[in-house]
Amino acid sequence: MVENFPGFPTRILGPELMDKFCEQSLRFGTRIITETISKIDLSNLPFRYWCEGQRDEQAETADLVIVTTGASTKEIGIER
Known about the structure:
This protein has a domain at 14-62. The chain is 18% helix and 16% strand. The protein has one helix spanning 14-27; strands at 37-41, 47-51, 60-62. The radius of gyration is 18 Å and the shape is flat.
């Protein structure tokens, strides 16, 4: 639950908020690529990236890259 995001008078679920971000960006012509990336070169524009399983010479390019790594719970061993 996200309870304090600007523009939403009530709380919103994280996945719903992300869907709204996606809808908005698509409205402005964003091309969204959802792939597992095995290598990325951020040293020059356009950025070069390789999807999992591609050979080095088959790089794709992008002017902007948003890296999302996911999330997982990490227990720290404190008893409740």
